[in-house]
Amino acid sequence: IALPRLIVPEVAGFRIMSRLSVDLMEKVDNDKHQKYLNSDAALKSILSITADQYHPLETEKQLHPCDEYCEKFEEFIRDYNKKLARSVIGDRSASDVFLHLIALVKRQSETTLTKVLDKALNSIKFTLIEAFVSAQTPASLNAVLKYLDNSMNAKNKVELIEIFLMASTFAPRPSDLLLDKILERLPKFTTIDAQLEQSTYLALGAITHRLFDLNKTSSAIEKYTTLLHNTKKKALVYLSIYNAKLDLYQSILIDEIHRCNDTNLCWLALNALTQYDPEQFSTEIITILRSIYHEQKGRVKTNLQIRQLCGQLLLRTDISIGDLMNLILSALDKTNHQLGVYMWRLISTMAENDELFL
Fold first, then answer.
1. 273 and 237 in contact (C-beta within 8 Å)?
2. 176-185, pLDDT tens digit by residue?
3. Which of 35, 123, 264, 314 has the highest CB neighbour count under 10 A?
4. Phi then psi for 118, rounded to 5 degrees?
């Protein structure tokens, strides 16, 4: 049968194996194949793809031309179960089969998808979950969530949910429905495992970031915003905002940084702030960063890591000559050798690369 042609943007992409394990596929350039040296290179390439570009998990046409398998979905799974196994990830023909699978999933009923997922071999279950999430139809998402609900007593329930969350996180054009479904499941996921709770918040932030580009008036984003304001576990809020990186959440970070009376929370808020454009920082933010870095009178003492982060952010703003001179003088201050060495190296490197915006 004719399978859809794979559209290759900057990279062929990668498939999520689990939260801590990413299997890399081949990078393609003029039909020449090469492996990525590390996961960071692949992640940066994938995350740089915008909603207007083709994504490696999409076909040339959004819907695959209907063939004999449209009405024989279970038969397709049986015929290609070896190509859907985790052991063949990265194989070009397996990638084509995966694309075909996504297109077929979009045409199936919830009943059919639920039946297939329940009966599937363990070797292909993760692949099916990824495909169902990639399809993003109400039927496919409901089928996955129903399966997860029925797997709460399974030994690998955390891994199953992680696969679902990671596939959702990297959806290039996430829908309101996808964000809504994860928000609905958040209370259940948080009772299972602390790491899973963190993964859910990270996924929510990443999905919101992409969804905002597509639909700024999304009702699901409003629910997510309410969640951020009402959640008492602020560490999770700041981790989520790190991925969301939207201007409407910057005030939440500023409030925490202004207090900076809990070093862990302050660092997380500052780290999330690094995702924003420092050149667009308000005078208020710059004043707060300056007061923390220089430990101005009345300011609660912080640790080295927080001061380093504040110094780094200040250098990346549209910095004034006065602020730069004060940072240089602080780098020469022998009373805090570690901070001085860090800042001097940072200033020198940025100057050499013409990265100081004076």
1. no
2. 999 999 999 9
3. 314
4. -65, -40
Positive/negative CA dihedral, 83, 88, 89, 94: negative
pLDDT value, residue 4 = 36
Question: What is the C-alpha to C-alpha distance for residues 147 and 129, in angstroms, rounded to an integer?
Answer: 9
CA atoms within 13 A on the CB side of 220: 21
**Helix orientation angle between 263-273 and 250-259, rounded to the nearest 10 degrees:** 140
Q: In which band, very low, low, confident or very high, does the pLDDT at 270 lie, cut at 50, 70 and 90?
A: very high
* Calpha distance 84→104 (Å, rounded): 14
List the chain domain ranges.
1-147, 273-358
pLDDT at 36 over 50: no
Structure tokens at 160: 């199953």
212 close to 246: Cβ distance less than 8 angstroms: yes
For the chain, the distance separating the N- and C-terminal CA atoms, rounded to the nearest angstrom, is 61
Alpha-carbon span 244 to 284, nearest angstrom: 22
Q: What angle do CA 53, 59, 60 make, to 5 degrees?
A: 75
CA angle, corner 43, sides to 309 and 62, nearest 5?
Answer: 135
Q: Is the dihedral of CA 237, 276, 134, 45 positive or negative?
A: negative
Looking at residue 89, its pLDDT comes to 65
